[in-house]
């Protein structure tokens, strides 16, 4: 059975180093806001190239806290509009609505699955204050045009970098392209913890200070509360694990690229639409390898019968969820088509050549039923 993602194997690659560090963290007697978090934050900031990094409890909180901090700083007001891709994981939209901001959904580009930058301009109103870009599936979405739109309209660019740690655009890492970025270290992400974890990077000192306080009960100084904050801290145990795994992220991302390259070169079933391998390979870290086909469910069943586990990212777009009844009537045909047709193949730094061969062979022998 080829698992979609073998988390046990992924983490056991670093078994000795992780176990030693976990034991020393356990024995230290210090479990929150300590040296492990400080070390990881410093290393994450250095890795991303940003001035500040803040560990938080998870990726959704990372995005919520960035938006909340802009409200606390008076830069956003409740009711302001934030542009966001319609094709994303619901967390991107939840972060916006949780802050009483209004999500303005923009269709993706069918080639990259990322927000269609050329459709952003027409969605901007006097209430638009930010663009929450999502580097979906591990592929960076960014351009000079996007930067110019943001500058022209005085909009903050916030990156949802949950899926794309380590990708680069013109030698700048994702997480350092906009004004602030949220990371998820959910176990299945390219840099995964052993539970929930998240982070924020920015070069904005005021924003960083505000976020740090908000994540810690609204306090930068014990028992002095400047905001009505929340508790969203990264803990020492998760930070210790992440600090180790961060050292290997480039090597692991490169392995993902090699698998993506093989899939793209060797899968040749005419029923299957393959993703594009970007001209500049560093723009993609292949968190997911997403193909499209009209007969998605049949293909998924067929692969399952052949002991290959696949997943769908995502089966229902945010605007069609019961959670967003007020958005249910929006017509977003590109997004809806993507959700009907996509299938994610196994990809991970620990896949063997035999497993990759088997996935390619199985897809190529999938019968053409049309
Ligand atoms: C995983 C993910 C999140 C949320 O991260 P959690 O750590 O699970 O809260 C947000 N946005 C995107 C695009 C994600 O893939």
Span between termini: 28 Å
Number of H/I helices: 12
**How would the global form be characterised?**
globular
Ligand identities: pyridoxal-5'-phosphate
Assigned CATH superfamily of the largest domain: Type I PLP-dependent aspartate aminotransferase-like (Major domain)
Helical fraction equals 25-40%
Q: Which structural class matches the secondary elements?
A: alpha/beta
Q: Please give the CATH class of the largest domain.
A: Alpha Beta
Mean pLDDT, to the nearest integer, reads: 97
The CATH topology of the largest domain is given as Aspartate Aminotransferase, domain 2
Unreliably modeled segments: none
Rg value = 21 Å
What's the story with the biggest beta sheet?
7 strands, mixed
Name the helix and strand elements from N-terminus to C-terminus, one letter apiece.
HHHEHEHEEHEEEEEHEEHHEHHEH
Please give the order of strands in the largest beta sheet: 1-9-8-5-4-2-3
Q: Can you tell me the number of structural domains?
A: 2
**Residue share in β-strands:** 5-15%
Number of strands: 13
CATH architecture level-2 label of the largest domain: 3-Layer(aba) Sandwich
GO biological process, one term: polysaccharide biosynthetic process
Family: Belongs to the DegT/DnrJ/EryC1 family.
Modified residues (N6-(pyridoxal phosphate)lysine): 189
Pfam families: DegT_DnrJ_EryC1
């Amino acid at each position: 059975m080829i698992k979609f993602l073998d988390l046990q194997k992924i983490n056991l690659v670093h078994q000795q180093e992780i176990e030693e560090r976990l034991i020393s963290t356990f024995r230290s007697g210090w479990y929150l806001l300590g040296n492990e978090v400080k070390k990881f934050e410093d290393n994450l900031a250095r890795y991303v190239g940003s001035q500040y990094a803040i560990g938080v409890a998870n990726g959704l909180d990372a995005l919520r806290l960035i938006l909340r901090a802009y409200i606390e700083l008076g830069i956003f007001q409740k009711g302001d509009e934030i542009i966001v891709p319609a094709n994303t994981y619901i967390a991107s939209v939840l972060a916006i609505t949780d802050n009483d901001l209004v999500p303005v959904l923009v269709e993706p580009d069918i080639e990259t699955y990322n927000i269609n930058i050329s459709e952003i301009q027409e969605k901007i109103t006097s209430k638009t204050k930010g663009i929450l870009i999502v580097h979906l599936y591990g592929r960076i979405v960014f351009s000079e045009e996007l930067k110019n739109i943001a500058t022209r309209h005085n909009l903050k660019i916030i990156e949802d970098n949950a899926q794309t740690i380590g990708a680069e655009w013109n030698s700048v890492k994702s997480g350092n392209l906009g004004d602030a970025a949220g990371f998820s270290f959910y176990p299945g992400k390219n840099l995964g913890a052993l539970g929930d974890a998240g982070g924020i990077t920015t070069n904005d000192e005021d924003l960083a200070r505000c976020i740090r306080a908000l994540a810690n009960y609204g306090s930068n100084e014990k028992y002095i509360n400047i905001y009505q904050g929340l508790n969203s801290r990264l803990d020492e145990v998760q930070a210790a694990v992440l600090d180790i795994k961060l050292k290997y992220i480039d090597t692991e991302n490169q392995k993902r690229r090699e698998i993506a390259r093989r899939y793209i070169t060797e899968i040749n079933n005419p029923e299957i639409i393959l993703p594009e391998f970007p001209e500049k390979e560093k723009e993609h870290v292949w968190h997911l390898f997403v193909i499209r086909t009209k007969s998605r469910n049949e293909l998924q069943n067929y692969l399952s019968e052949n002991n290959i586990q696949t997943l769908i990212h995502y089966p229902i777009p945010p605007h069609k969820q019961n959670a967003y009844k007020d958005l249910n009537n929006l017509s977003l045909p590109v997004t809806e088509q993507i959700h009907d047709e996509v299938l994610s193949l196994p990809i991970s730094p620990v896949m063997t050549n035999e497993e990759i061969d088997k996935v390619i062979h199985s897809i190529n022998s999938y019968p053409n039923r049309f």
